[in-house]
Write a structure and sequence with these properties.
- Helices cover about 50% and strands about 25% of the residues.
- The protein has about 180 residues and is α+β, with helices and mostly antiparallel strands.
- It has one domain.
- Strand 2 and strand 3 form a beta hairpin.
- Helix 2 runs parallel beside helix 3.
- The protein is elongated and about 100 Å long.
- The protein starts with a helix and ends with a helix.
- The relative contact order is 0.12.
Amino acid sequence: MDNGLRDIISGMPEEEKRPMGDLAQAIVNLARAAEKRKGARADLIEATDTIAKAIRKELRSGDEVSLEIHEEVRGAKTTGTVRYQAARVQPKGRSVAQWQDALLRDYAILGLSDAQGEYISNPTVLGSTFHPATAAERESFVLEAESVVTAFRVLLENEARDYGTSASKATKLTPR
């Protein structure tokens, strides 16, 4: 308890001190809970950005997959389609800003721990701006991460197969 609160309580009549003591303890407990939440949120940001960076490292800008989702985050049930895309982003309105690799979950940016404000992407999604992922979006990403990795793996394997087939055909056409 800080000195200001102690001074307020010590100057009060005895019958008023007990409720304030309970209030003071409640405020201390609130502060502890707030600190615990802040630490857990920081851990969530660090963990999800680490995963997103590892996924993004293996992709080219523009690689994209869509997933059907059926999940529950903090009691809210969600169904539908979510799109993940490897992109390069920069803060909106900065012409000299440096582009940074990121993984987009719909309009949320993953993989940039220090992201703030609105961003634009390259490849450009016309008229779209992106924002740092919220805690709820990060929680959803945790639930979807394994499916995201699998979907991108399938995409890359299919492209490798298609490129190999095309290269084989091109080799047959090459004069000897």
